[in-house]
Amino acid sequence: MFKNRIFGYIITTLILAGCTGTHEHGPENDWIGEYDALTTNAPINMYGTLSDRHGASISDDNHNMAVLLPLSGDNAPVGKTIRTSVETAILQSGAKNLNVSFYDTSDNLKDTIKTILAGNPEIIIGPVFSNNARIVREEKPENLPVLSFTSDATSVGDGVMTMALMPTNSIESIIREMNADKIKKFIIMAPDTDSGHLMAGTAIRAAEISEIEPVGIFFYNEKDTDSIKNTAQTASLNNVRTAAHTRARQVLSDILINEQLTAIEKSNLNIQLDKLAKTETVGPVPYQAILFLGGGEDTKTLASFLRYYNVGASDARFYGTTMWDGSDIASDITMSGAKYATLSDITPEFRTLYEKMSGTQPNRLATFGYDAANMAIGMMYSDKSNVAYLLDPSGYIGTDGLFRLKPTGDNERALRIVKLNGTGTPIESKTATKSFSTPLYNIEQRHIKPADAMELQTPGINPNNYIMIPERLQKKYRSNIIGANIVAPIKFQRSQIIAFLPEDDSAPIKSENYKPVTLESVNRSYIDEYEIEE
Fold first, then answer.
1. Could you give the count of Cα atoms lying within 13 Å of 111 in the half-sphere of its Cβ?
2. How far, rounded to the nearest angstrom, does the alpha carbon of residue 108 sit from its chain's CA centroid?
């Protein structure tokens, strides 16, 4: 078993082999019942000394914290990022008599958990993966709190909470912004993965709440240029609009060849033919916006093909989620005007502190780890119960802004909306909410059913609507409507069974968003399958 300790502020040493510990967990926590009795007030600032924090004071009691992370193998860089943040928080806090032990999830996890429990910890930070979080939930006492980093809502609960951003928060935020922009119809373009289908299902539910109509759902294979191209071609109605364009030109040509026309009529028809010769399609797309649920690089490729198939900024507005974080999409001038939901900027104080500790710039995983450690320390030194401290509905102001944990194990994070301008620094379009005085979200991830692909709903295109022919010839040169496709409206259902993460944490994390800058190479994907490679 891999085990390590922080020295410095550690006063006592735990003997793990056969150790039973002396510190009691305290009374059983009623994660649901006690939470219901709490009231919402002003959010609590997590910065400053322990005495500055709500209900926290320094005492002479010994306190034990366990940290469970991938510290070896392919995912060691992820564990190293969180570990650095935890160590930073501990050293900065000035907490006395605090024992912090690090454990490796790459070892036999059930045996590791038994060893952890023998040390009688008051709280566990970690693990990262959903399958590990489930094992911890099954093996630990229900009253022992755990601050994990999974975004899979089905793997938390019973005292296992998560610091990770929940996908539903980001999607609901951007759908709300679309509603504010008066979007009425939109399509969804998402990766053809379990998480992609789940996010699409979330978007459908959020659209129902905001009374916006999704008229098409398209899935593509990530990083697969051919798949992305074909998806863009289908979503753009390129074949239909091209066929309508061909028919419009045919009608004009037939009239010029077969009919007796005045000079003015001939001139008008020739002008229209010349204009059509400069385009490849006619007719609009039957939507006002596109919601991209994939990462920034795939989104840029999709957008490029959409423009190639004549769906530009004047045809549909682009929207995205926090999946765009970590990519260079903000520097792409062709994406100017696109909006997406994201966390607040990392505080300058933490950036400076983390860089001094690690020599690298922090990413979101680093901030989640830092806030988790601060939450854990605050809870252990507080005179409040674990539930009252960790689940305070007033929330906390952390390095990523306002957030709060929920008794179900998931969380809510206040997000802002930013608008791309091609400079690399998006413009803030809507600031993040500063308090939980009013509810921020309506959707719980555990109640979302993954969505299937949905053919584009369209009334079709009448080519004659895009040309002008002499009134006396209109009946003779009628055209059929091309591409009409009206499908049944989406029925919303709920499902409790969501597989959001791979069951085997031996698969390396591949994430742009959670990529340590200079530690070791970590490939693309979000924490958990928002997104971890399946």
1. 8
2. 30
Contacting residues for 457 by C-beta, under 8 A, at least 6 apart:
215, 216, 286, 485, 486, 487
Q: What three-state secondary structure class fits 412?
A: strand
| 3-class state of residue 454 by DSSP | strand
The token pair that represents 505 in the structure block: 């944490």
Dihedral (Cα; 61, 50, 123, 356), 10-degree rounding: -120
As a whole number of angstroms, the distance between CA 488 and CA 490 comes to 7
pLDDT in tens, 305-354: 999 999 988 899 999 999 999 899 999 999 999 999 999 999 899 999 99
Burial of 190 (0-12, 13-18, 19+ CB in 10 A): buried
CB of 237 closer than 8 Å to CB of 458: yes
Q: What pTM value is reported for the model?
A: 0.85
Handedness of CA 148, 150, 151, 156 (dihedral sign): negative
- In tens, the pLDDT along 427-459 reads 999 999 999 999 899 998 888 999 999 999 999
Q: Which helix (H) or strand (E) holds 238?
A: helix 238-258
In whole angstroms, give the CA distance from residue 396 to residue 470. Answer: 69
SS3 318: strand
Lookup: tokens for 333: 């001038």
- Per the structure block, which two tokens stand in for 273? 């033919």
Do residues 58 and 70 make contact, with C-beta atoms less than 8 angstroms apart?
no
Q: How many CA atoms lie within 13 Å of 459's alpha carbon, on the beta-carbon side?
A: 6
Q: Residue 189, SS3? A: strand
Coil, strand or helix at 193? coil
Distance, CA of 137 to CA of 144 (rounded, Å): 9
Tally of helices (H runs) and strands (E runs) in the chain = 13, 17
Specify the 3-state DSSP secondary structure of 151. coil
